[in-house]
Amino acid sequence: MTEALDLVKQRLVDGVETGKGGELTYAVPDLWINPDHLSQPRLVNPYHFYLDRINWIEDQPPEPLIGGTSGGEWTKEAVIYNTLVRATTGYDHDEDNEVGLDPIGDGWMETGTFLKTIATLPMVKRMGFNVIHLLPVTTIGEDGRKGTLGSVYAIQNPYRLDPRLSEPALGLEPEDEFAALIEAAHHLGMRVVVEFVFRTASKDADWVAEHPEWFYWIQADIPNREAGAEDEKAYGAPVFSDAELEQIKNQVERGHFDDLIPPHAIYRDMFTPPPDPDAIELIDGAWIGTLDDGTRVRVPGAFADWPPDDPQPPWTDVTYLRMYDHPDFNYIAYNTVRMYDTRLARPENRVEPLWDRVVGILPYYQRHFGIDGVMIDMGHALPGPLKQRLIERAREVDPDFAFWDENFGITEQSREEGYDAVIGNYWWLAYRPQRLIQDMLSRCARSGFPIPFFTAPESHNTPRAAARAGGRPYARLLWALGCFLPALPFCHAGFELAETVPVNTGLDFQPEELSRYPAEELPLFSEAAYAWENKPHLVEWIQRVLDVRARYADLISDPDPATFDLVPSDSPDVWAVIRHRGRRAVAILFNLDWDRAHTVHVPLPTEDEELIDLLSERTFTVKNGCLEATFAPASCVILHWEARESL
Hints:
five-stranded antiparallel sheet, globular
């Protein structure tokens, strides 16, 4: 083990040797200790517990990281565990029925930390994951903060880590504990990908006082517009007429970015030149500047940039960075921060010092911590030349550094831009079964996809799978099915626990659902603990499915449509996906109806008369190349065989 993990270990040893932690009530989930145990709390001494976890990791033989030659090609082998550190390992350690914001005992956090994430690595590894994907871990702004802790996407300084993610008991900086996490993950053969936001910052970002010209400014006395209102005298997303919206959308759809319709003059006139750095002060948590004529100015909040009439509420905690500077475009709108007008997006208008600072972020984390890749939040909205610089600089440091695109489309464009994978839309199609068949599974068999995508039943922005139609059984099915597509299995932390509370309500929620989850109830914005005591959970199921997938990984990960057959049964809800190469075949048969069982006939290209489900060891009879069986709601089986001749 190298320096950072040794440093953390030594602080724990010091605590053990001096008898610390013995009087503290400190419980941890049993799953953190042994995934085979029932889900229940266990009282431990934190110094002993975390030392034991690190010793266990050290005792394992070092495992190689999943391979690749260059350009992040290792992504094709990725099996991803995605975590919001602050929430995933949040826990009511002192058993007082709440997750406190202040440390307990001699400095132990109840919100999630890097150290607690290290403690869960053995469980994550055992389930079968080989990549840890961390949602943002940098410092969080306070101006316009939502909830009690603020969104991890409201980044105050991308070069500094959130101090709440370290354990005060150890007396170390968060950077030390973050480095230890990456070392521990690498020792277990798991790569680490970190998510970053490059085009927004918190409104009270550290860079504001240093470089006010990197930000937009409006008159301080202009009020913010309420969500859903259209008062153009108040600040909010620019208001366009129906005719203007139609023209804007048509022009963008045609790819014509010349002379895009600007916001109305009343909106543009709200914006001012930036104040001088020495004329800015932090007042009640917000940066306020004073212009030479005495006008007081402030940093405005952001909003959804496309389409211009997007109904999302305003983003009160972040602002857009000024990527280009031109006097005719001194405002925030779709044509300055997303669909860049060609008159603005010229080399001479680039804010080069800002671009240099942004481009330097990834090399900093590569050199100081050894991260293996990045998920770029809203990367599709970054200027193309800036994106290319990010990729080039990062791959100068590590030629095999991976780039993942937060893009729901699975297109050739992402591949052309240098990305290795995209989020994709499995999470959306999964709850529209016929669209799943038509838009994804049929395409896998027909033409394939140009870039790997995630088969995520849920994400931090969607409803939890266990809380949706079909509940746990359908969540299990979606996991198994996703693991047999030529794609990347993706588990958002909490899925394995059958957690039902969403992290955020950003995607696929009904209006009536939004009111049930204020920011104070959502882990993206406030303290939280996941349902570590849930029974039954999905930990064993995930492990069993990934064990089977690992046996056929070379076949399953092959995107060649010739290896993928989609076979219908005599019910529109029951299907088979057969993956095959040569004489070798493995199939998943599944019922997409989460309400009803179906007795069906499924044709299978095998001469075997009996096939055994690799998950349950149940035997199925095949007669004349046809399997007849009753499939319970949202159920699946996995079968394999060796054909006498190539399929």
